[in-house]
Design brief:
It is a single chain. It contains nine helices and no strands. With 236 residues, the protein is mainly alpha-helical. The protein has one domain. The two termini are 17 Å apart.
Amino acid sequence: MNVPPDGDLRRTRRRAVLGAVAAVVVLGVLGLGVATGFTPQSRLDDAESRLFYVGDAAPPWLHDLLGVVTAPGLTVTRLVLFLPVVIWLVLRRAWWTAAWVVVAVAAIGPLTSLLKAGFDRVRPQFAGGGARLTTLSYPSGHSSGIATLVTVALILAWPLLDATRRRVALAVGVVAVVVVGLGRLWQGVHYLTDVLGGWSLGVAWTLALALAFRTLPGDRNALLPRAAAVAAEERP
């Protein structure tokens, strides 16, 4: 168990709450625009989708490459990447932390599908893009998936990293999130609004669960900071 809540932890919790609320607001505002067919938003989405889409005549290898680029947003990718982490946490008897990881990475897919059914948005109708798919568009499942993956990984690893590694991890995470989102636009299977909504959903979901499971850095069920972990391992 970590140290009791202090000023730093209260500040971390407050930032997590604000982040989650802001993400929910973005998700809701964009979703309202989708549900009501808000004209400026629809026009922007149409323009952005035409701008980014690689085109119906794009070579097959390019579509295959984009499939690889966006694979980190898939449920199977999250499960494969986090299975060793969950096993490691269970072996350490970090039950609540392991449960948080499992719920966050496994349930974001069904939650996204539920919201897709509610908003009932058709994908961009490019012959080589969204028209090939029968699933719905808002919010993007790949975008919510990669945002969840990165947010879970950062929260989990943050106490174990020094300042330099934290900056590197944050930069790599942001790049991964952006690349997957752009990849879905390049594939012509999502609008910009879908991607932004997916990112918002993933961040809001993960932060809310981290607050509920008390796994934010410094909280009861977070991993110990690096120095404390080393001292605990050296203790007889």
